[in-house]
Specification:
single chain, alpha+beta, Outer membrane lipoprotein wza fold like, 4 helices, 10 strands
Length: 207
């Protein structure tokens, strides 16, 4: 009887231990790139962007303009039009509405030539990166893409203790990532998907 009881205790402990490990893995590690399904991504214009506006058959109204810090643009016949927070197509339609007061059936095309984007669409890298900076998010951007853009990590970085701060549906998450495993060991599992608004924090090693 004692041996049977002992077996049941050991089995219960094994089940509990396995469930704890499984729970930790799923709650702290973001999904690998290939496991994340990306939806349709549309670029959103932000302050500091440069845009080229083309008005068909009206070259005098076609020009390149910067988006001001207040998110607005000014072009011939159109003053203080909100541009930030809109897609290029949305902005083109708004310019057409504004120009329709002066031109019959204007056709406008907007092309973004200098990308900065709104803060909500940027990825910020702070800490022990070779070149800490804010990056404009690109569709299907991975952690490796970010590391290439910032030049990797410094010799003083604790890469496997790095974290991603992410907000999803208004809730903040802190996800562990392993930069050293990704960069130095080529661990593809560590190459996780990045999302707009992510903040990558790379701490300094204790030694």
């Amino acid at each position: 009887m004692k041996s049977i009881k002992k077996r049941f205790i050991n089995l219960g402990f094994l089940i509990f231990f396995t469930s704890v490990l499984g729970g930790c893995a799923s709650s702290h590690l973001p999904a690998p790139v290939e496991a994340v399904k990306s939806g349709e991504y549309n670029y959103i214009i932000g302050p500091g962007d440069n845009i080229s506006i083309s008005v068909w058959h009206n070259p005098e109204l076609s020009q390149g303009v910067p988006v001001r810090p207040d998110g607005k643009i000014t072009t011939p016949l159109v003053e203080d039009l909100q541009a930030a927070g809109k897609s290029p197509t949305h902005l083109a339609r708004d310019i057409e509405i504004a120009l329709s007061k002066y031109i019959q059936d204007p056709i406008v095309t907007v092309i973004v030539t200098g990308f900065v984007g709104p803060y909500s669409q940027q990825i910020r890298v702070i800490g022990q990166a070779a070149k800490p900076q804010a990056l404009q998010y690109r569709e299907n951007m991975s952690l490796m893409d970010v590391m290439i853009s910032v030049g990797g990590i410094t010799d003083f970085a604790a890469g496997n203790r790095a974290t991603i701060l992410r907000t999803v549906n208004g809730k903040s998450q802190q996800l562990s990532v392993k930069l050293e495993s990704l960069i130095r060991d080529g661990d593809v599992v560590a190459n996780v998907q990045m999302l707009p608004g992510d903040v990558l924090i790379i701490p300094e090693s204790y030694f």
